[in-house]
Prior knowledge:
The protein has 70 residues and is an all-alpha fold.
Amino acid sequence: IFATQPLPNSYLFHQSLTDSDLVDESDLSQWDNPPPYHSPPLKDTPDEVRFTQNLLDVVHGRRLRLERES
């Protein structure tokens, strides 16, 4: 499988890629399972959009770090 989009280049992505202690990853294991994800409907606010982008960056960094460690 090949990626169709580049990985993030954000601070959070690099922090989660570097070390699991730099970002709180305690609740991220729920995203290791395939969808559907049980969560409340998203609010269309700038804060929610930013939170979602931050979550994506951390999840991608964590997955790449775990892949490199295995």
